[in-house]
Amino acid sequence: MKKNILKKSISCCLAFCAVLLCCHACGTETEKPDTIEDILNPRRNEQETETETSSAHLTEETQESTEYQSLFFPETNIPTEVPETYAAETETASEFVLPSETLPVAVTVPVAETETETAVPEISSAEWETAYREFLERKSFQRQISADVQEADTRFLLLYLNQDDIPELFIQTTMEVLIYSCHNGRVVYIDHFYPSHYTYNFYYRPYHNTLGSLQGSVMADGTYLEIYEFEDSPLSASGLVLKTTYCYPTRDYSYEIYAERGMNIDLDKAPELDVHPDRANNLGSSWITIPDVLEASPCIPRYEMTEEDLDALFGSKETDPTEETEETQEKKYAFR
Fold first, then answer.
1. DSSP states of 151-197 as a string?
2. Which contiguous run of DSSP H or E holds residue 237?
3. Could you tell me the strand order of the sheet in which 202-205 lies?
4. How many CB atoms are located within 10 Å of the residue 140 CB?
5. How far is the C-alpha of 132 from the C-alpha of 327, rounded, in Å?
6. Which whole number is the average pLDDT over 183-196?
7. Mind listing the pLDDT tens digit for each residue in 128-161?
């Protein structure tokens, strides 16, 4: 029995030796475990090798996917982690501040303002007086007044409608009032309105761009004050234009009537215009009444279209000394 066991042991040893010799002959070397961990876990080195191989493989895949994203989705190519060296450089840069002496100084460049209005040259008194006189002498206003108006029923006067130093020229008749201005050295038509057919007068508020007249009918819907508000307009041909027309009835029952007609009844504007709808005298003290054209007025000077009145207002015309009349030439050469 012991012999059989011994034989089996020897045969197993021989077989093991044969396997070792065969492995050595094939060039395969087995590493000997050097530490206790190697002895207890002989496949630890193989696992670490597999882990390094898998991590390297994942790195390659990540690089490939990043390259793909950078090619087709550049906006998503944003690093999720900041390297430590880059973070350190950023912190250092954020703490660095230039001294005030080295800071760049902002240079202010003046911007040219855009001219929205055309500059109007100033006109001397001699210029506008000459322009008005020539306009009146030629009677250029006749093409704008009614044909039924007689020259004897026509007067002219100068009133300061706006706040400049040049008065406006008014042509007053029994039927209408025409307004002219001297703008850019020329006499230009502004507007016209009709005075009341009861009194033929109108109302004037100096230097406030406002005029007025009494309109309506006493027997029908009642009378009302019609206020004309003008405004300066340097870009217009006349320099003054009609802005708005207001209506202020003189009777309580007329308010509803004229409001239904769409008349501009602006009670909030009334104090600014010096109009008092709740009083018998609707106009305040800043208004001046210009009476009927045929009525003499010691307060409001009005003139006829005659040479005497033109001389009285504008002064005598100065004759050119180089121009000699026939009478002067006859006297000059009579002594020769």
1. GGG-EEEEE--SSSSSPEEEEE-SS-EEEEEEETTEEEEEEEE---T
2. none
3. 239-249, 222-233, 210-217, 202-205, 288-290
4. 13
5. 30
6. 91
7. 999 999 999 998 888 888 777 777 789 999 999 9
